[in-house]
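testing teh design pipeline on a random one, pls ignore if ur not involved
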């Protein structure tokens, strides 16, 4: 009797079964949800050693007790360098640690008003190296108060303390300016005593309301960073600021000889990759 067909059939079954049984030994843990200072791609951070974080997920349903035993973080000044796995700003090399949150940045001193790009990979409990995470970024604000060159501006209205209601209206400020070329990157930094909303070429920037955050204006004024790269254009541009009275007319701020403003005020600076504009000198009051 000829048994060859049966042998071939058994061999095919073994090969077929083996193709499903052999596990993928390369990647077992993936990385996601990268954060910097607990935010995703934050803009305007002023921490020289921002804390980085990431989360792990299993890429296999049949594995248990997986863990990270080491990580490597690289930070670059451009996405092109990061794509080549070159951390010209920081390369942590392999750090033996299971830490995935509050990992401090320990690279070159960060510069103000810069965007940095970073990613991370890890080794699992079996020393298997994961794929690199997706690229994340963070943008710095100002690390030195002297870098804030803007002057406070506002309207000539003045709140009358002791009145039952507010006697001043919410002013609008605007400026038209011209760019000779399309900018590669454009950020504007705004601090206000009172609320503000930013408009660029007729479009409200961001989805926030009642900005900035409430704070004690006898001690500090908080600023917000806005990315306006996609809104400015070559040629004529219009930037508008609406100011709301809000905390600028809060009674306790206006103690005798306190020097606090009796009207909403604002200071702003805009920086472009090729053109630099000190916006606070260019704002005009709409009357």
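output:
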């Amino acid at each position: 009797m000829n048994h060859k067909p049966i042998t071939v059939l058994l061999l095919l079954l073994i090969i077929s079964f083996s193709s499903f049984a052999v596990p993928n030994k390369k990647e077992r843990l993936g990385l996601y949800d990268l954060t910097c200072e607990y935010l995703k791609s934050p803009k305007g951070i002023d921490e020289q050693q921002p804390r980085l974080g990431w989360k792990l997920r299993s890429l296999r349903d049949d594995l248990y007790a997986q863990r990270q035993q080491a990580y490597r973080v690289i930070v670059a000044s451009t996405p092109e360098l990061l794509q080549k796995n070159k951390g010209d700003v920081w390369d942590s090399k392999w750090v033996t640690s299971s830490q995935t949150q509050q990992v401090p940045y320990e690279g070159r001193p960060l510069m103000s008003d810069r965007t940095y790009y970073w990613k991370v990979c890890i080794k699992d409990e079996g020393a298997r190296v994961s794929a690199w995470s997706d690229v994340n970024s963070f943008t710095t604000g100002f690390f030195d108060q002297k870098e804030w060159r803007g002057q406070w501006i506002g309207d000539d209205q003045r709140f009358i303390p002791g009145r039952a209601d507010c006697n001043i209206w919410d002013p609008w400020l605007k400026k038209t300016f011209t760019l000779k070329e399309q900018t590669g990157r454009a950020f504007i930094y705004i601090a206000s005593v009172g609320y503000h909303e930013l408009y660029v070429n007729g479009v409200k920037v961001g989805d926030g309301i009642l900005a900035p955050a409430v704070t004690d204006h006898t001690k500090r004024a908080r600023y917000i960073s806005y990315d306006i790269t996609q809104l400015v254009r070559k040629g004529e541009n219009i930037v508008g600021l609406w100011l709301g009275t809000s905390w600028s007319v809060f009674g306790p701020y206006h103690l005798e000889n306190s020097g606090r403003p009796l009207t909403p005020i604002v200071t702003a600076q805009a920086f472009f990759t090729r053109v630099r504009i000190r916006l606070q000198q260019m704002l005009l009051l709409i009357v």
